[in-house]
Automatic annotation (TrEMBL):
The keyword Transferase applies. Signal peptide: none annotated. The lineage of its organism: Bacteria, Bacillati, Bacillota, Clostridia, Eubacteriales. This is Putative beta-lysine N-acetyltransferase. Pfam families: Acetyltransf_1. The keyword Transmembrane helix does not apply. The gene is ablB.
């Protein structure tokens, strides 16, 4: 059985780490003791030989990390409930991990995506298709579609129990069905306290690509969460023409590239951050 990275409490912060992504990902920083927290991150990275540390850091706390050699790779304005930006600050214990692979291709993807800014095309689902919020009873079919689409993923969305667990806490999943067949999926991972949501976990059955299903899912998710969420964002595969173009069309602004950041589709890939104000 594949072992996924784990999420732990560390020094008052919330950290996701493991060898699958070969990194530490700081999801939440502690409210106090920042200098000690950063030292604990360095110790954890050294102990496990991780190649990258990436941290989501509120703007007022950036200085602690910058003084320790972290640099900014991306930023989301007004991310937190108090209006502070979120900076994605990184360090590379493994210098080779910092080298951007396929740089020309990634630049081409980003350029073409930005050219589509404001060119929103909202497709109408073909007859026999319908879109709705997913239920716990759908978890088995959802996990099967994620297994079909992704050879690897940073979180265990291939497992029905994980999908049910996140449904019960903070994630709203949405799907598109042709009749009884599930053909497209996405999710809104919500932080209601801070008023932001990650639009993520997009997967379309390879037999149904080219029908703009991801665009439909994004439109439906935004409508579902906009009364509770101020800022929507995504961390999209930098090499994907389709996903980057979809977010650009929907009015998302480019926030930066996280280099060699995430294990997805069987390899460590660079990821683009996109963001949008919903309120």
């Amino acid at each position: 059985m594949k072992t996924f990275d784990e999420t732990i409490r560390l020094g008052g912060g919330l950290v996701h780490h493991g060898k699958q992504n070969d990194r530490i990902y700081v999801l939440k920083t502690p409210q106090e003791g920042m200098e000690r927290f950063i030292l604990q991150l360095e110790e954890l990275a050294d102990k496990n030989g991780y190649g990258k540390i990436v941290a989501k850091v509120p703007a007022p706390e950036e200085g602690w990390f910058l003084e320790k050699g972290f640099v900014e790779e991306a930023r989301i304005p007004g991310f937190y409930g108090n209006g502070s930006d979120c900076a994605f600050l990184v360090r590379y214990p493994d210098g080779e991990r910092q080298v951007l692979r396929r740089g020309e291709h990634l630049e081409d993807v980003l350029r073409k995506a930005k050219e589509k800014e404001g060119m929103l095309y909202m497709p109408i689902l073909e007859e026999g298709f319908h879109c709705r919020q997913a239920l716990e009873s759908d978890a088995g079919d959802m996990a099967a579609l994620y297994r079909k689409v992704f050879a690897s993923y940073p979180f265990p969305i291939h497992e029905p129990d994980y999908i049910r667990e996140t449904m019960e806490s903070h994630v709203a999943y949405f799907g598109i069905w042709q009749g009884e067949r599930l053909v497209g999926l996405s999710s809104a991972e919500m932080d209601l306290a801070e008023g932001n949501a990650e639009m993520t976990d997009f997967a379309v059955d390879p037999e149904y690509r080219g029908k703009n299903l991801a665009s439909t899912l994004l439109h439906v998710m935004e409508a579902a969460v906009k009364d509770r969420i101020r800022v929507a964002y995504t961390i999209a595969r930098a090499a994907s023409h389709g996903m980057n173009a979809t977010f650009s069309r929907h009015g998302y602004a480019f926030g930066g590239t996280l280099r060699n950041n995430t294990q997805i589709g069987g390899a460590i890939e660079s990821m683009n951050v996109w963001h949008k104000r919903l309120q």
